[in-house]
Amino acid sequence: MSDKKEKFTAIKGMNDILPADAPLWELFENTVESVLKSYGYQKIVTPIVEETGLFARAIGAVTDIVEKEMYSFEDSMNGDQLTLRPEGTAGAVRAVVEHNLAYDGPKRLWYKGPMFRHERPQRGRYRQFFQFGAEAIGFAGPDIDAELIMLCRRVWDDLGLDNIRLELNSIGNAEERQRHRADLIAYFEANASVLDAEAQRRLHANPLRILDTKNPAMQDMVNKAPKLLDYLGGESLAHFEGLKKILDANNVQYTVNPRLVRGLDYYNRTVFEWVTDELGAQGTVCAGGRYDPLIETFGGKPTPGIGFAMGMERLIELMKSQGEPAAPSQCDVYMVHQGEEAQMKAFILAERIRDAGLDVVLHCATPQGAGSFKSQMKKADGSGAAFAVIIGEDEVKNEVVAVKSLRGAEGSAQQTSVAFDEAVDHIVDQVIGGGECGPDCDEHHHHH
Length: 448
Description:
By secondary structure, the protein is α+β, with helices and mostly antiparallel strands. It has helices at residues 22-38, 52-59, 64-69, 89-98, 142-159, 174-190, 197-202, 207-210, 216-223, 234-249, 294-297, 312-321, 340-355, 373-382, 393-398, 423-433, and strands at residues 42-43, 49-51, 72-74, 81-84, 107-116, 128-137, 165-170, 255-256, 268-275, 284-290, 305-311, 333-337, 360-362, 387-391, 400-405, 415-419. It is built from 16 helices and 16 strands. It has an 8-stranded mixed β-sheet, sandwiched between helices. The protein has a 5-stranded mixed β-sheet with strand order 13-12-14-15-16, sandwiched between helices. A 3-stranded antiparallel β-sheet has the order 2-4-3. Helix 1 (22-38) packs antiparallel against helix 5 and helix 5 runs parallel beside helix 10 (234-249). It starts with 21 loop residues before the first helix and ends in a 15-residue tail after the last helix. Belongs to the class-II aminoacyl-tRNA synthetase family. This is Histidine--tRNA ligase.
């Protein structure tokens, strides 16, 4: 033997999603997509790599994300500065501006896919993570804000997640924030003796972040700090009241959290977070807000926008913690065969059964060979299929196939012999008609 080759492992903070988890991811994705569709949102797919400047401009050059967390590199062919997207809004809005999507009226858009941030990996926080996001562009009133929040609530309901709560705030406009910021800095300076080193470092760069401090010695002082809500003018307040009115009328529970600010520079007015206490420190599973100034920043005509993004890994972890749904079976039919002629017949029949809309796993040879009937039947059992279809030499001679129910009551597993040309109809009848089959036969997704 040659000397042992070193094995590769995945990059830290970037995870494989293995087949055992696929059904859960699929359930999650299908649920979210059908909810988005039910509100009239349309899919947009943008590239994973964008110009670095796009994110610096959108997210703000002095934010943690742009300063420390982006995977940025120089294109070795032409020297362009490129970045793996750390979030989805900037690319979606870039596409809206580039293709004039909003010129013929407002757009409801959604996307999904991987995002990349160079963070210290911890539970529920990864360097490659998946997000679903929605962006509603060209709508100005609080009604669309309410719609996006209610869309999220429907996702949690459909996934059976009942321990996610809504926190809401309004951060007004830039001028209202400026006035608040000046007073906040003055207030912190007056309480300088209570500020820890981190707070002193942030005082002038990003005083709002001090409000997020976990330091118990600072809590009392922070709680008494000037509140942004008290600085909102008439329009900002009316928008916030309008939103709360619609949520109240639709029985959406929420808490107004005056400390909720969101880390990105482009937000204004409504900001919201969906939070859970079940995942340890990383409690936010979905966050969003209004970003009316962003499109103009990107060189588009002034157009309002609002959106959210949800972290798929965290929500899937939440689904797991609430009892995992049973793994669906791999197929409907497992094809067992012995001998060369039988193999040819099995291929033909497997294709016909697939033509009829069922899922078939056809037994194929391994390095150990074709496998005995007994070992093939074991595989059929393990596949979760409702039926095994068996073709051996006798069946070939008599132009029949044997159909064996794998899900019958113990000991009653009966086997039927069916003419080769009638096998497809027989099997479809069995699966759909629920001959010997589990509770979910009738809702088979893909019958033509």
